[in-house]
């Protein structure tokens, strides 16, 4: 998404008090301690192993690293990951 279009959508989202994760096509990441993470508004799995999961998002590639990582569930709107999470980054 180009910068001008993003800024316009961001202003509209703020003015109408709409959730940015929906209006701006950005992921919502929820982490519960070091044991699980939920990624909403994803665009699919890029790679998956027991120590790293890479997820495509509207902001870029999200990398979750750790030990014994597993995908507990994956649906169109959300991915739930369990295991010992040590790092989350873009």
Describe the SSE topology.
Layout: H1 3-16, H2 20-23, E1 28-32, E2 36-40, E3 42-48, E4 52-57, E5 60-74, E6 78-89
Antiparallel strand pairs: 1-2, 2-6, 3-4, 4-5, 5-6
Condensed summary:
This protein has helices at 3-16, 20-23, and strands at residues 28-32, 36-40, 42-48, 52-57, 60-74, 78-89.
Beta-sheet strand percentage?
over 45%
Instruction: Tell me the series of helices and strands, N- to C-terminal.
Output: HHEEEEEE
Total number of helical segments?
A: 2
State the total count of DSSP E strands.
6
Please outline the major beta sheet: 6 strands, antiparallel
General form: elongated
Please, what is the average pLDDT? Answer: 88
User: Class by helix and strand content?
Assistant: alpha+beta
Gyration radius, in Å: 14 Å
The unreliable regions are none
Looking at how many chains there are and whether they match, the oligomeric state comes to single chain
Helix content: 10-25%
For the largest sheet, list the strands in their spatial order: 1-2-6-5-4-3
What is the terminal-to-terminal distance? 17 Å
Textual characterization of the structure:
The protein has 90 residues and is α+β, with helices and mostly antiparallel strands. Helices cover 20% and strands 56% of the residues. It contains two helices and six strands; from the N terminus they run ααββββββ. The chain has helices spanning 3-16, 20-23; strands at 28-32, 36-40, 42-48, 52-57, 60-74, 78-89. The chain has a six-stranded antiparallel beta sheet with strand order 1-2-6-5-4-3, with no helix packed on it. The protein is elongated. It starts with a helix and ends with a strand. The relative contact order is 0.19.
């Amino acid at each position: 998404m180009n910068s001008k279009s993003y800024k316009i959508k961001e202003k509209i989202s703020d003015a109408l008090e709409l959730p940015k994760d929906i209006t701006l096509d950005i992921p919502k990441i929820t982490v519960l301690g070091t044991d699980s993470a939920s990624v909403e508004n994803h665009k699919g799995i890029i790679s998956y192993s027991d120590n790293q999961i890479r997820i495509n998002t509207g902001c870029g590639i999200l990398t979750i690293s750790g030990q014994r990582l597993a995908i507990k569930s994956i649906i169109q709107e959300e991915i739930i990951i369990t295991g010992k999470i040590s790092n989350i980054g873009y």
